């Protein structure tokens, strides 16, 4: 293989090897190995010394031709070893390239570099020598090319080569790097090796023509890596020196640390030993060699004894001073010593002065009673003054001491007020502590509370009337509107109280040693004077509007003031940021309860709620009751049996309501609200009330309004008076609800519907009117809503009392059962009326309809007129029932109608003789009836769909097994099967009747006998066989 092709893979493998070296020691080791390898391959052993000597000599001392020959010529004195036999497959190391052939370089080698022909190498040494020769030859050829390119400049070949080697020997400087290069975190060994390799290649070669093949020159790499190796060695030595220095410093520091630790350990042991000795000496332990009584226990007893002696000394001094003051007041009539203490003693002196004055007053009560005579009383020959023969002179000590105490108290109160105005909390605290002995501080607490600016300002606002626009009060009295909330004036007061109390609690805590007592008194004054006065005014104003306005205002006030109490508790007041103490919390709860006790005590609240609901319900149902009372007065034949009690009930309800409107107890605003709910005007209250049919109909929105008002009252009751009385209150509310919604509203409407249903039985010429079913559907919806409301809202609230809960359930079940019975009776009456009219229509069936003449064969394609009349009527009834009733009531009604119709039609077909052509008419009618009933939404349809249609042989079993709960979808198919009995021939008839027995056989025989050809031989044979 030519050498020019072998050069590039060799360089690539070298660079790849350099990139794979990561650790620095691997790099150094590789550079060492690479340098030795390059020296072994390219450096001649004898020419190396000569080359160095030539390089050391000046450039001018040796001619260029000699230096070139010396450097590149392979001397004849050292010939290559004789070549061995070329191994198979090997080629020459050096081949002539096409470029060299064109330039003639292979024929004319450079001066001093003879061209050697190919000699196959015989060993590894031969290969190394041949490779070295090959590289030198390539370098010489490259220099010759350079000389030819520079020929135009006048430089000779020898001078050019000499200048190149001189510049290389004198100007080479290897890459510079230091320890900082390797300290960087971004240092990568591959990049470092590539940098060294790039710096070793001359710039001219890197930027030359890439298409030209240049011989590989390893010497720049050798010099670069030698320099790098030397530099790395120097750095390694520097690192080793630094490491040795640091190691020595570490060893010295460790030795010093060990010595210091040992010294501190000894000192710690000494301290522990001294502490143990001191502890044993104080505790009287046996280790100190002395008696235990001389140790710490003795010191404790000595300290206690000293404290006791100090207290005795203080009591003796106080007793001495007390006796001195008593002598002064009893003998001289003054308290100069106490005056000095009061003036000069400061805060503690004032406290001591007040305490001694109180003791002097007690001494005066015991030693100087009021019944003591002022003059002439002697005891054992001595006068009262203790001097014989001297005139007695007594002073009123009690009066003097009381005057002093009064003066001291006034002085302290005045100082407290001055300190309060200047916000001197320390001075206030001293005065408050001194005034504690005067009625337990009642005077100073009263001064602080009574003179507070909040009460002074609010005292002028208490007399103001409750403001508010008329729209707010109208919303408050409107039961259908949302409550507007608390009164603005009360809200403003409560908000101000919240801020004032939080601010003053800070002052109370700093100014009073007994801050909780002062805070309690301040809060009591706030609740009992300010809040209670405004609350009474607001409730009085609301009560003048309506009962509902009063209840809503009471609830809003209770909620808002309750939030004030909770905010004060969470704020902490004097304990801020911690919650208030249990004493203050209990006081706040008690004040809240005291505010509303007058309105919630006993049964007063629930009576107000009942009164409010009665007014609302009566107003809402006024026109309904008037309409029902007028309806009952209509002279009709079926009304004769109605009870007089019902008429009197409605008449009394109307009169009571009108009397309530005319009463002076209600305000004008409440009267307006009641008239608005009743739907009448003020001018019409004294006239006859005009009502329409719509006023007498049931309305689901009306029932929802009534239940909504009840729910509002129940929620309000839970918030205001929730407790042990809740089950009783719920029971009272339930009675009111059942009375108005159940009896007055639902039961009355159902009675009216029952009367209308009963009246339809007496109508003979016109079809029955079942329009009352519309009100029946509304009644069922209201009843369901009523039951659900009771079970959801009221019953859970009565769970705490088992007896009341059972009573509520019993009352509710009785009322609901009564109403459901009325609804069932109305539906049954409706079914009876419809079937009665159907019977009347079927009676109009002509005998010739089922025995037509030959000229009536044209009419065989249509149903009979009776069938058409029945189906039209029943279709109208089903349409009205579907529009007015809902499941399951609709399904039950239509099922009953279907069962009754089927029974009527079977009896109807038994009464007629049917000819063969008449059998076709019967089939048409039966099919029409079956299609009509099949389209009804009966409750048994789904069951019939699942079971599928049965065969015609068990048709009678269907009618026998149908109960009141539903009707099969194919239940009318038996009519078609019966009609087939009139059409089929004797043989088919025999097959139809085969296997039939019992009641079904007799029923089928009765139909077969109605055939016109029943007397024929074939039919008689069939009947005989059956």
From TrEMBL:
Which residues does the UniProt record annotate as the domain Exocyst complex component Sec10-like alpha-helical bundle? Answer: 352-1020
Report if keyword Coiled coil is assigned. yes
Q: Which InterPro entries match?
A: Sec10-like, Sec10_HB, Sec10_N
Q: Report biased composition (Low complexity) as residue ranges.
A: 53-66
Which keywords are on file for this protein? Answer: Coiled coil, Exocytosis, Transport
- GO BP: exocytosis; Golgi to plasma membrane transport
What GO CC annotations are associated with the protein? exocyst
Enumerate the spans annotated as Exocyst complex component Sec10 N-terminal domain.
Answer: 218-341
Which segments show compositional bias classed as Polar residues? 375-388
Keyword Ubl conjugation attached:
no
* Bias type Basic and acidic residues, positions: 947-957
Q: Where are the annotated segments for Disordered?
A: 49-93, 375-394, 938-964
As for family, the record states: Belongs to the SEC10 family.
* Name of the molecule in the record: Exocyst complex component Sec10
